[in-house]
Amino acid sequence: MTIHSIRMMLDDTSDDAGTPTTVSADAAVDFCEVCLVAPRDTRIALVPYGHQRICESCANEVHNQRRGCPLCRTLISVFLRLY
Q1: Whether this model's pTM surpasses 0.90
Q2: Is residue 81 exposed (0-12), middle (13-18) or buried (19+ Cβ within 10 Å)?
Q3: Domains along the sequence of the chain with CATH
Q4: Which segments of the chain are extended strands (E)?
Q5: DSSP H helical segments within the chain, as ranges?
Q6: What are the two backbone dihedrals, phi and then psi, of residue 5, each rounded to the nearest 5 degrees?
Q7: What's the rounded Cα separation, in Å, for the pair 42 and 30?
Q8: Cβ atoms of 21 and 14 closer than 8 Å
Q9: Phi, psi (degrees; rounded to nearest 5) at 47
Q10: Contact, 76 vs 46, CB < 8 A?
Q11: N or C: at which end does the chain have fewer Cβ atoms within 10 angstroms?
């Protein structure tokens, strides 16, 4: 699934009968804030600040690049899997 196809799904604001409906702002909250495609994994927390808004794949990549958090730019010491 591409970002374009996700945007198309979110932009479709009509029901089966063609009646316009609204898409809440919370519709995209469940997606990773880095790739915007994968579902975010709230079991992964970036330490030391505890952001839980990215998927596991992006957490691994961000941690390996050692470039800091893509959300707040703070240096990541580790990422934890919460159970």
Answers
A1: no
A2: exposed
A3: 3-81 (3.30.40.10)
A4: 44-47, 78-81
A5: 3-11, 56-65
A6: -70, -35
A7: 9
A8: yes
A9: -105, 135
A10: yes
A11: C
Rounded Cα–Cα distance for residues 67 and 36 (Å): 19
Backbone torsion region of residue 78, taken as left when φ is above 0, otherwise alpha when ψ lies between -120 and 50, otherwise beta: beta
Tokens of 51: 């952001």
Question: Which pLDDT does position 32 carry in this prediction?
Answer: 92
| pLDDT value of residue 80 | 87
In order along its 83 residues, the chain shows pLDDT tens digits of 445 445 555 555 445 555 555 545 555 458 998 999 999 988 988 888 888 889 989 988 888 888 888 888 888 888 888 88
Tokens 């932009």 belong to which residue? 11
Sole residue written with tokens 């994968």? 38
Alpha carbon of residue 22 to chain centroid: 21
What is the β-pairing status of strands 44-47 and 78-81? antiparallel
Half-sphere exposure at residue 30, Cβ-oriented, CA atoms within 13 angstroms: 5
